[in-house]
Amino acid sequence: MSAGYVTVQWNRHKRIYDACVVGGIAVYLGVFFAVGKTLYAAPNAISDEILAMRALGTCAFLLLNIILCIGPAARLDRRCLPLLYNRRHLGVATFLVALAHAVIAIGFYHGFGNVSPFISLLTSNTNYGSLSAFPFQILGVLALLILFLMAATSHDFWLKNLGAPAWKRLHMLVYVAYGLLVMHVALGFLQTQRSPWLAALVGAGVVTVSSLHLIAGLREYRKDGRRTHCSQSSGTHAGETWVDVGSVDDIAEQRGSTVTIGESERIALFRTNGCISATTNVCAHQGGPLGEGKIIDGCITCPWHGWQYRPADGQSPPPFTERIATYRVRVVGRRVEIDPAPLPPGTAVEPARIAEDLK
Ligand code: HEM
Ligand code: FES
Questions:
Q1: 206 has pLDDT over 70
Q2: Cβ neighbours for 36, distance < 8 A, ≥ 6 positions apart
Q3: Ligand 1 site: residues with CB under 6 angstroms?
Q4: What is the pTM of this model?
């Protein structure tokens, strides 16, 4: 969160995560190299540089597929949430592996002429009109630039300075990078090797990433659809409209739940110590779904990276200073009612007490 600048905010969980990522990459590269050496034995031997390029290229592409699957998988199954927690380190690792692949490729294919390797990369093939001879490396360059932008702005410092919406939009470019890389791999490797295995693996990756996104999106859409048919009643004060959003029994103690009213943004409800509170569902960090979080140490705790807010006023506990919008809420019998007009971030709202005999 926002107290003081720390280059990398490591903790035990992140160290284990990072050790698994580095170990996984090392094992992948080692196995790829060993199997490659056996498969490409003389007389079909290929150079170590080409083998390294392939090991690093496929490793980076695989990592990117995993990164893109983590988001929807965490929405579909809460057990995947710990993977989401440190996804940015996985992104930086992907960039570094892809960079190593690109450096070897540029050095090997463009490093021995009398023009600079980068000029040679950009000018040696200009067959943009031909599918079979398309300069597929350029697609890799563009994707690498996007991965670089994302890795360079991955620190919370940039999130804070760019603002969550702009940062999020920038990081959505990952889908553009993915599209470019699918074309890079398809046009490049299939052009040179025409291996049915790589084609099948790339196809399997694209199908897995797209179906997980479709299933998770459909589930969210259905969830919203279920919640929009709420009855309304007028409030006791001018301008107040109370909307019935369900029963107190729909929310477990110390847990959150999400509702959508009409076309409004999602609202998160929390039940703690026999009271109901309501805040925006959007975490101030990276827009994580607060309603899928729980109450820890008396604070709403985001399921993605653990940022916390007090249920009564949407403010992060000191020394942190983040604030989120709150909503007026009341309990009538067993029913929870919300005034759907969001209050300015950090506004204190008296939590609605559930009557003793109804708790
Ligand atoms: C400056 C940027 C890049 C250049 C110049 C470049 C160049 C190349 C070349 C020359 C090949 C064919 C290698 C062979 O002879 O088999 C290739 C293949 C490939 N590249 Fe890239 N690439 C770049 C960026 C990337 C990035 C960012 C990724 C993934 C994140 C990537 C993933 C792959 C994969 C999976 C293959 C197919 C397997 C292979 O042959 O290594 N490349 N690239
Ligand atoms: S999105 Fe990161 S903590 Fe909420």
A1: yes
A2: 46, 51, 54, 55
A3: 50, 53-54, 57-58, 60-61, 64, 98, 101-102, 105-106, 109, 121, 137, 140-141, 143-144, 147, 181, 184-185, 188-189, 192
A4: 0.77
